[in-house]
## 1
Amino acid sequence: MPLPTARGEVSGALLDALVREPGGVTLPGGWSLRAADPYGDDAQLALYVCYELHYQGFSGVDDAWEWDPDLLRARQVLERRFLDALRSEATAHDDPQAAVAGLLVEPADGAGVSHHLRDEGELWQMREYIAHRSLYQLKEADPHVWVVPRLRGRAKAAMAAVEYDEFGAGRGERVHAELFAELMTDLALDPTYNHYLNATSARMLAVVNMMSLLGLHRALRGALVGHFATVEITSSPASDRLAKALRRLGAGEAAVFFYTEHVEADAVHEQVVRHGVIDGLLTREPALAADVAFGVDATVLLEDRFAEEVLGAWRKGRSALRVPL
């Protein structure tokens, strides 16, 4: 895909640099990096672009930028500010069991995005939600693969088993990212990888960036496990609500299938992650318990903020995207 449109001084300087040859190019630094809001559009877009160099990259950008030392130093400043903000604002538990326990009970009066879409959402709102989620879903499970070499024994085996399912269990047409692309096509959305990057809010960028941040750093392996557990535990009931929403809105079978597939699969994955990955990791490395809990708390914080933004916009009758569909 082409490079996105800048959202401020930091992302602008980064995007200007990436169209040139690596080495000797002025990158954002100093005051501008430290002054950028760690949750804001400018910093989050800059982080997303840096991370995307480890995934599919951008057309016209030299692959050598992926490991350019100056770019990695600039990224490190943004990462530290983002991580510090998350640790300060998200941390609510130091015990993984207590953190996970809050995810296992479905509130009777749930008011999240999937509840809204199931009960009263309109088709244009569903399409916007899918456009937002496409930034992750079109590379579903890719950020989590990086943790596999950092795990051992039971935790590694359990994590690999879940990832095997995410990647289609050996069948290319069942890769979850491919199924999501079919869902998008069914809803008359463009399934091109990162097509909606310019339209997506900073709050969704933060959700996806946190996955890459935790996955790319071995020191954060415990937090990545906590994050992944949160995704798997909350996915099955939310997927059930979204499947019902899509049926109510008259979507085709390809759209409905993506979520019905996740209802059953993620109910199984929840057990594997809790008892295989988390327990397996903490048996070998009990000192990572607080990091696992942090991964849960940080995921909940960012997802709640994204939901608040989206529902707030919809209640006012306006688009939740920066660029309406």
## 2
Amino acid sequence: MTVRKAWIVGGALVAGGLSFVMVLVVAVYLVAGNLAGGMAAGGRALAKGAVPAAYQQLVQKWGNLCPALTPALLAAQLYQESGWNPTVVSPADAKGIAQFIPSTWATHGIDGNGDGKRDIWDPNDAIPSAASYDCELAKYVKDVPGNVSDNMLAAYNAGAYRVIQAGGVPGISETQNYVRRINSLAESFAAPPSRLDPTRQAAGAIDFAQRKLGTPYLWGGEGTAAQDGRFDCSGLTQAAYASVGIKLPRVANDQYNAGPHPSRGQLLPGDLVFFSHDPTDSRAIHHVGIYVGGGYMIDAPRTGAVIRFDPIDGADYFGATRVTEDGAKALPTTV
């Protein structure tokens, strides 16, 4: 909702039709081939804004507690378990941001902030406790063949004994899916050490969105017949990626975690671009669009407007996500 001089002017964008999509297909792959560097060095730093500001330092510090754990893995677990909600209670009575069962908390909860209390509801205790528990499990399975982080995650899900007995990640579908899901989701929390490759579905998602240009905005719109094919911002992006076989969550601040995060200078057509009321907190994201190049996106801006091209550069620009199939599959459907 927010102009830089584009390499394709607004009128040509609207009129370009299929030829514009073909330009984007070429741009996605040619630009990607020439992209280099610019990302934070190393794989242990958190991506900017991926973790809510209130927990950023905690996750960064405690995510480096042992070699098997990284801040991104810890962030992925917390997001998967609670969606950063420190007051949530599961049907199994798991509590707080780290979703500890009370009996597990009794033996593994620690006083992370040194105030003399172990409070399952306090993220300052629960996040350090989650990291401490992970690292305890890593010690139990350190001699098991295979990747130590994968074995740690498997032990978290299925228990250390089963990992030791199986000689690695056990052949339990729930456990195997958990390990894959956390590893995939961790990519959206880590600052990538190198350039980000584009997804093959990017041009198809843009094509879908382009065909909706001029459609009136509808709050809560998902493009159904009952809604006369109208969308809101995240409904449009969800439908665009669904058209190429990638299922995204419904709301924008969850869509942010559907893949790694290119910097502003590394944007490619098809990336999702996000806008937030708080420049440090992905949970404050209020708008999303599909980047098309030249500083522009296709978006469904607001009530009274239509789906259109808008420039992305404004005070509330937050960041971007390069959507990946594995990243999208890793996102929790409920928290």
## 3
Amino acid sequence: MAKKRPQKKSAGAPQVTNGEVPVVGAREPCPCGSGRRYKACHGRAAAHAVTELVQRPFEGLAGECDWVALRELVPAATAPLRLKGGLPDGVPSVTLATVLPMAWPALRRDDGSVLLALQNDTSSGDLSRDLADTLQRALEAEPGTPVAARRVPAEGPRLQDLLDAEAGFEPAVHTGFEFWVPQSADSASPEVAASLERANAAAIPTVKLPGVDAAYWCETPDKNHLRWVMPHPEEELLDALARLHAAGTSSLGEGTRLVGSFRAHGLVVPVWDLPTGMTAADCEKPAAAFAERLAGALASDAPLTAEERRARGGLTNRQVTLS
């Protein structure tokens, strides 16, 4: 085999001798001047730095469980966000949205307000850092323009650095995506209108239960479901659910069944099958009663019985990881 010749530095490439090497496209020449493509040069270290997975990207934010629900489970929802130090001049409000038209990561509206999308694909393993980068660029964007996706630098603030930790998190679940279009607007562009029509057609009816935290009822053609994002450590929660399941007290009433759970962003999301006729309002009292039973099971430190271990194994086998 012929020996590989050492790559020469490009004569016209800029030389970076001090400071950090800028992030560029993977196939572009590396800004350091080596003559190699970025992905084969400084891009290797940058890629490793930004792909280390953060298991709980929303930890420390108010309403962590609802952040997870809006990211993974809820089709159409919004929540106002409050920034540390207040809003910049010319920005009347910042609102989190599940998705935006054309999958925009964010949008600076004509009136200067900002919409930040939560369900977009991200470039690194730290969703909080990716969203913070998008939010910062949206705050500086020209009114009336969307914010494009980009590769996020390895260093930078996270949502926890930008959002006011003292502010609550109050999501509003919508039946559709009409919140994309301001009431003051005469009409949406043809592209936004078409995207709105597609999104509304695909949205699963979803309702947030008011009596318990981060529990969401949804309606599907075959049956309804309750999906409940819980903040408890996974092993402790599975033990508690197993105790209730073995005792026959894990359901939400006649015709309901705890069928398994999702694992999403470091939290566990138990899922119940519900009869088609069981509405969100019908779930409120049974869910509150279950929360009390669960609290008792979580407080127990007794070893699991053989039956409880079998129940735990069944629940573990029916767990699906979303992220």
